[in-house]
Amino acid sequence: MDKRLIGSSTVLFLLKCLLAAYILTGGCLMLLALLLYRFRLSEQVVSIGIIVIYVAAVFLAGFIAGKRMGSRKFLWGLAMGLAYFGIMVLISMAANHGLKGFDTHFFSILAICGAGGMLGGMLS
Q: Tell me, what's the pLDDT at 101?
């Protein structure tokens, strides 16, 4: 099989993993918004919910990527977590015209996304 075909199918698969993670994120954030509206949750509970959603999404992406790649699973999971974080930062910069919201928690969110993806890859 041609190496370019193998490489392009791998990239396409990894993009599908990221898409699944973002679909999960969107659905869970909508559920969290509904719970916030219905039960008038505190800001601290919402912040914890958002972190749990980030971890669950990158865990899923890392788990799926690690399962498919077979070797060096933790690195593929880490790559998924960092790619998820990178796309999230780009979207935030486009929407907010800067890093408003990431400025105080930039490195902690980076660590959470990387660790969640790596954990998913290791457990696959």
A: 64
Instruction: Give how far Cα 39 sits from Cα of 34, 36, 48, Å.
Output: 8, 6, 15
CA distances to 18, 49, 64, 86, 113 from 60, rounded to whole Å, are 9, 16, 6, 17, 11
How many C-beta atoms surround the C-beta of residue 2 within 10 A?
Answer: 7
Q: Residues 80-114: pLDDT tens digits? A: 999 999 999 998 888 888 777 667 788 999 999 99
Distances (CA, A) of 103 to 13, 17, 77: 31, 27, 25
Q: Which residues contact 106 (CB under 8 A, 6 or more apart)?
A: 99
Domain of 37 in residue numbering reads as 3-123
Helix or strand run (H / E) with residue 100: none
Number of domains in the chain: 1
Tokens representing 33 are: 């918004």
